[in-house]
Every structure is written in C-alpha cells, then in structure tokens.
Amino acid sequence: MNTVSAERLNLLFEMESIKSNLTYIAPGVSLKVIANLGYKDQNGNKRRFYEEIRYKSNKYKNTEHLISSNFNVDCYLLLEYPNPKFNNYDDSFKSKGIIIKAYAIDDIVDRMKEFNRHLINCFGVNNDTLYIKSGKIIDITVYPTLYSTISFRPDIYESNNRREMGVRLTFNNEFSITVSAETVWPELVYRISRCDLTMLGFQMIQSYMSLLPGMAVTEYGEQNQSTNRYAPYWEDPDDIVNRPESVKITPRLSDEQKKKSFFDGF
Is 245 in a helix, a strand, or coil? Predict the structure, then answer.
C-alpha cells in the first residue's frame, strides 16, 4: 500500500457524515439528506461504517472461506434554518435544524397532503386583490420528533408588486418564512414524499465503495473467536497479515473436518 492509499484509508476512517442538498427553500433554509457514518462500539471507540467478516464455510466445494460485508449507514433528512438567536459573541451556531427520521416521513407527508386539499380554497380574489378567506384558514403542525415542530398555514407575499399565494412555514415556533404555494411548497412536498432514505444512503457512499473491499476484515476462527486482521484501520494489511495474533489460512480441510458456520444460513 502506497502513501496515497494509506492517507485515503485514514481519511475514510475519520469520515463522520456526508451531506447533500435536496432542495432550496429560501435563503438559509434548505432540505438536506445526511448519511451518518460514525458510530461507537461498547468501549466508546469509533467504528468504521463498513466492515467485513471472513469465516470458514463448507457451503461451496471450491472455497472454504467466505466474506460477509456489513454497512452501518444512518440516513435522515434535515430541515436547516437560520438560528434566530445567533450572535458572534457566544458559541451559538448560525444554523439550526429539524431531523426527520424514516419513521416520521409517512405522517408528515399525510399531513402535507391534507393541507394541500384545502389550500386552494383558502384564497379568494376581490377587486383583483388576493386575500385569505377568514373562515377557510387551515393551520397544521407536525412533530418529526418529540421536541421539534413544523407548522404550515396559508399566507400571502409580495412579488414584483403582485400579491401571490404562499405557505408560511414555522420551525420550532422560533423561525418563520413564507414560500410560494405554486413552486417551492409543491417541491418540498414532492422531495419528502419520494424520499427513500435507505437508497439515498447507499447512493451517497457509492463514490467510496472502490476503497472499501478488503480493508476492514474480521476473521472468525475456531470456536467463533474473532480477530481483526486489519486493525488499526489505517495499517496496511500486507504489513500485519503474518503477525501471530492474525488468523492464518490453514490448508484445505476434508468434508469431515469442516464445521458448518452459522453464516451459511443466510
């Protein structure tokens, strides 16, 4: 392994997350998807989001070892908005966000569609002036998590000296923005409703896949005792494969000597 490859693997191990913008909503407000690649083991150490387990198997006649790959990618949506309490004199962040996990998407989309069914009836025109009918106002709040809220209600905003139909979005009862009911709002509903977080997560790590195979192998030996041949992660496998603590590949066993692995059942 050359120096460049070693540096790439080191950076890959340190990588914590990948972010991608799904849609722009307003200045400082956007819908993002985040693939979280960092998680801890029982000792509090950072683990790689990709691991391989190498084990003995009699499933096939032409090999006695198999490898199973495991991905640990936690993917979720983030509605990011400006922090209304931000200042340059403390440790506050410029932006805040509302996390939307997969389990919350269906309920949020259902409420958005319910809002859409009543939205057009909320507006009226009198003497060529757009207005909101007082008896038709619908105000809906959704709860992506126990401690976060997104509210939406009909609104009117000025654009090029014209009154336009809008939707007022309020995040956590602390920041509000009015967006176009004809362009921005439908796009937001579409993006959330068509979101497959599992597929998005794998698409986001696709560019790193060529760096992964063979770089995070854990070998299961006798009595299912495991040894990580490639730990620590940034070491060259070729440099440590012959260490005493590494599991060595033994000569081919006869069928009677083989022990069926529990991995063969998958």
Answer: coil
Give phi and psi for 114, each to the nearest 5. -60, -40
172/155 Cα distance (integer angstroms): 18
Which one, of 80, 65, 98, 87, lies nearest residue 27 by Cα?
80
Rounded distance, CA 246 to CA 229, Å?
5
The pLDDT tens digits for 158-207 are 988 899 999 999 999 999 999 999 999 999 999 999 999 988 888 887 77
Task: State the average pLDDT for the chain.
Answer: 79
Question: 3-state SS string over 65-99?
Answer: EEEEEEECCEEEEEEEEECCCCCCCCCCCCEEEEE
Residue 95 is encoded by which pair of tokens? Answer: 């932006």
d(CA 200, CA 34): 9
Amino acid at 61: K
> Is the Cα dihedral 8, 11, 17, 18 positive or negative?
negative
pTM of the model: 0.73
- Residue with token string 């057009």: 120
